[in-house]
Write a structure and sequence with these properties.
- This protein is an alpha/beta fold.
- Helices cover about 40% and strands about 15% of the residues.
- It contains twelve helices and 15 strands.
- Strands 8, 9, 10, 12, 13 and 14 form a six-stranded parallel sheet that branches.
- A hairpin with a 2-residue loop joins strand 5 and strand 6.
Amino acid sequence: MNLYRYTWRRLTVLLILVLVFLTGCQGETVDNHIATSGKKPEIQTTPMDEEITVEDESDKETEEDDIGSEETTENTEIETEVTVMVNKTMYTRKKLSVYEEKDTNSKVVATVYSYCEVYVISHDSKWSNIKYDGKEGYIKSVDFLESRNAYKADGFKQAAKIDNYIRDLDTKKPMIALTFDDGPSSYTEKILDALEANNQRATFFVIGKEIKGREATVQRAYKLGCQIGVHTYSHPKLTLITVEDETWQINTTVELIKKLIPMDSLALRPPYGAYNDEMRDRIEMPFILWSVDTKDWETKDVESTYSIVTNGASDGKIYLMHDIYAATAEAAVRIINDLTNKGYQLVTVDEMAYYKGVTLKNGKVYKTFK
């Protein structure tokens, strides 16, 4: 009996020692976890019938990597689209002046037109050294298109809206360029009203001294998408004045216009259509004349002006009128309304040149785009 009690006590002591040992090990594990993570481990319980889903971390990492790859690819494509390729032919997105030096105050050697082919020699964040129309110079750095056809993907209408020059027109429909000289005048607004009502455009070759007091008219014409050209300051025959006077007549008018509107595109209509080869070599603008002179300056007759334009209307023609006569303004309203109804697209000179595939060049004379 005593032996039994002795044995039982020893077993009890041994069992207590084992329990103490096991409890100590478990406490050490918990303490180690707290020291490492700063918090006690959470014991998660799962309902008996609930499906246990184990997320595969390797799949998650792969998925994130794929997303990152897509973003990298997309960004690379965008960078490639606007990267300028040097020693290669590119196409400009907008019209810009080509300067002789890296200075906007230096001589302008040419004008680059929207979606125009240029050869890029070098390029940095501020300037691009290019060759255009046989001349080398610098333009303020802009985005280029690698292909002329890329303008469709680039958002042609959006770019045209920014340039305020070229619309998305129907090349299957006839185009006519109505041009008006010697304004702005009190009659110009009437012509602009008709153009705006019909969503049409025209080109106005303005006289510098007539701008004062009618600045809003010039700005309105531009906002409607009309082209503003140079017709000198006081309408002298340029072939009969000195080179110094010629330069003053043109440059003064250009500066007056530039104070009112952006003027990346320069075009000259010499008064009386008078020019010579020396002028063509000196003046760095396209010379825009006309296909048909309506003689409105002579007849000052509504019916005559109206008939000359509408009876002979045909694709590619440039018509000469003057927005300083009441009769011309009245005729112009009828012309704009009737030609629109007949399906004609009334365009600016720049639009006509663009859609006829003509690059306007400084010193060259243009009378038609047929």
